[in-house]
Amino acid sequence: MNNKICVVTGANSGLGFETAKALAAQGARVILLSRSADKGQEALDKIFVATQNDQLELMTVDLASQASIRETGQKILDKYPVIDTLVNNAGTWISKHSLTEDGVETMFAVNHLAYVLMTHVLYPALRQAPDGRIVCVASDSHFQFKINYEDLNLTDKYHGLRAYAQSKGPM
Ligand SMILES: NC(=O)c1ccc[n+]([C@@H]2O[C@H](COP(=O)([O-])OP(=O)(O)OC[C@H]3O[C@@H](n4cnc5c(N)ncnc54)[C@H](OP(=O)(O)O)[C@@H]3O)[C@@H](O)[C@H]2O)c1
User: Fold this and answer.
1) Residue % of the chain over a pLDDT of 90
2) pTM of the model
3) End-to-end CA distance of the chain
4) How confident is the model over 110-133, as a mean pLDDT?
5) Which of 3, 73, 104, 123 has its CA 20 to 30 A from that of 63?
6) Which of 89, 102, 144, 161 to mutate to test the pocket of ligand 1 (most atoms within 8 A of CB)?
7) Upper half-sphere CA count for residue 157 (Cβ side, 13 Å)
8) What is the band of 157 on the pLDDT scale with cuts at 50, 70, 90?
9) Can you tell me whether residue 8 is helix, strand or coil?
10) Strand locations in 85-130, DSSP E?
11) Is 26 in the pocket of ligand 1 (CB under 6 A)?
12) Residues 129, 1, 170, 162: is their CA dihedral positive or negative?
């Protein structure tokens, strides 16, 4: 992974943090995407201390907002015409029904549509990489329910587990 350009969403905690750290330990240039600048900086500092990799960069994005994904995606593209790896990792779980500013059920927006849109926006750079990779973190829970194409926002009989399961469904 030496000098490969890797973008990791949800890099400030959990699996995203560990993935970013592992990539940094292997010499990659890692772009950490975080919703919060403070949490992202804290993660970047920890990864630097652990790996001494000085090719780490933090950018903020709210994956519940399609405008934010497009804006941050464009910033990445402006700086990096070639991207070797995109790890769509960020995910959320919300028990109560809510809609994003785009009018999409929040878990479906963050866990599903954001993966597709970030990939779409960064694709011009990903396809320039000799061996580009797109990794999408799923969940076994997607076996539990199929995507309800008739009512993607699950406005009828909303249930958090059902909404999470469909958000992790096949893309
Ligand atoms: N842990 C498990 O047992 C498990 C099992 C199956 C699948 N997964 C999947 O694994 C992935 C990582 O989960 P995790 O366990 O590492 O969870 P986590 O520690 O809660 O990390 C989730 C990350 O996603 C970010 N995120 C959430 N909503 C966001 C938004 N609107 N915009 C930008 N970033 C946002 C969070 O940022 P904040 O810190 O700002 O909230 C956090 O960095 C998820 O896709 C999850 O569905 C996890």
Assistant:
1) 95
2) 0.97
3) 27
4) 98
5) 3
6) 89
7) 2
8) confident
9) strand
10) 85-88
11) no
12) negative
Measured at the CA of 113, the angle between CA 26 and CA 130, to 5 degrees, comes to 35
Q: Which two tokens stand for residue 114?
A: 């954001």
Place of tokens 């990539």: 23
Q: d(Cα 27, Cα 12) in Å, to the nearest integer?
A: 19
* 3-class SS string, 34-88: ECCHHHHHHHHHHHHHHHCCCCEEEEECCCCCHHHHHHHHHHHHHHCCCCCEEEE
List Cα–Cα distances, 37 to 10, 114, 130, 148, in angstroms: 12, 19, 32, 35
- 68 ligand 1 Cβ < 6 A: no
CB atoms within 10 A of CB 6: 24
Q: Following CA atoms 154, 95, 159, 13 in sequence, which dihedral angle do they give, to the nearest 10 degrees?
A: 80
73-121 per-position pLDDT tens digit: 999 999 999 999 999 999 999 999 999 999 999 999 999 999 999 999 9
Helix and strand totals (H; E) in the chain: 6, 5
What the block records as the tokens of 109 is 């927006």
Picking from 46, 21, 16, the residue whose alpha carbon sits closest to that of residue 33 is 16
CB 40 within 8 A of CB 60: yes
Q: From CA 4, how far away is CA 79, in angstroms rounded? A: 14
